[in-house]
């Protein structure tokens, strides 16, 4: 840990990804020196291009499943490296398991040696296809360990267990954020997640592909709310997991219709097979975040989607 007068330094693994790059921006704005570490497997140098040349920013291309070396002191590690969209982790099942397990172990080892605080990006997927609704942090989840999604869900569950073990046995200061579906600029339009897919399809006038009958629900959070939640969690003293998500729940079919309206599109809706183990419902109980972080989302879905629309329009224009 650096002395109190020195500049604070944060390592952000997965910092060239969607969420990681927004966190790089926020911690720089808060006066931190930011070291962004990423192997660019699902992230992109474009996401951090605007930061290259900033003296307080450094990019290190590295796969965090291998030993991590960082020069100098560190105050904080935000461990965000991991494929996150179902398409990505189904294409990279072993890498997903490795980054959640070996990568988390390496990042925790680094936190121990630097006496840095460690924050794990966990996920609502630890609840699997939940049998309680909404989900609060005391629910242990309903995950199929050998199902297709198990590579992601179990990696994150292991990562949480490893984080708590370092906390209990090595007295590392740790934080665990369970992130619910988040959207915003810097998402890839082909990452396969519902929102970028629907935006791309609607803006191109193509049919929106709703999986199953579309009655499954999700609760979508705007990226600025996630960043604020992570910031508060990293600055506070609460070490049990905290849900960060927007409780506004919607069925996927209604969501597809909402995107068609928002984009003023003539697109139709088609129905395709529901992927295996696709959770039927998902909605965060954010009582804990309200209580320990005084946090709740500042953007409702309509506002957040409006703020995101221009980004997707430009992305779609660029590829035509
Ligand atoms: P993303 O794919 O945009 O970012 C992940 C980043 O990690 C990428 O830049 C990728 O190149 C990097 N990475 C992957 N494996 C790596 C490795 N072995 N070594 C170094 N870098 C590696 O995804 P995202 O949506 O920004 O998600 C970031 C984190 O947040 C993930 O840990 C994810 O599980 C978690 N999360 C995201 C959401 C969401 O809705 N976006 C929800 C829950 C949890
Ligand atoms: N989904 C869909 N059409 C698509 C992509 C996704 O109907 O083109 C569904 C998916 O089956 C899931 C929901 O939308 O029920 C949210 O999917 P996403 O991949 O965005 O997030 P996750 O399933 O990880 O919550």
What do these coordinates show?
It is a single chain. Strand 1 (9-13), helix 1 (18-29) and strand 2 form a beta-alpha-beta unit. The protein has a seven-stranded parallel β-sheet, sandwiched between helices. The protein has two domains: 9-183 and 223-245 and 285-299, 3-Layer(aba) Sandwich (Rossmann fold); 194-216 and 249-283 and 303-314, UDP-galactose 4-epimerase, domain 1, CATH 3.90.25.10. The chain is built from nine helices and 13 strands. With 320 residues, it is α/β, with parallel strands linked by helices. The site of uridine-5'-diphosphate has 14 residues, from helix 5 and strand 8.
Compose a concise summary of this entry.
With 320 residues, the chain is an alpha/beta fold. It has helices at residues 18-29, 86-91, 93-114, 150-170, 194-203, 223-235, 252-262, 287-293, 301-318, and strands at residues 9-13, 33-38, 57-61, 76-79, 117-123, 174-179, 182-183, 208-211, 217-219, 221-222, 242-244, 249-251, 269-272.
What features would you highlight for this structure?
320 residues; alpha/beta; Rossmann fold; UDP-galactose 4-epimerase, domain 1; seven-stranded parallel beta sheet; binds nicotinamide-adenine-dinucleotide; binds uridine-5'-diphosphate
Q: Helicity level, as a percent range? A: 25-40%
Please give the CATH architecture of the largest domain. Answer: 3-Layer(aba) Sandwich
Largest sheet: 7 strands, parallel
CATH class of the largest domain: Alpha Beta
Do you know the CATH topology of the largest domain?
Answer: Rossmann fold
Overall tally of domains: 2
Uncertain runs are: none
What order do the helices and strands follow?
EHEEEHHEHEEHEEEHEEHEHH
What would CATH call the homologous superfamily of the largest domain?
A: NAD(P)-binding Rossmann-like Domain
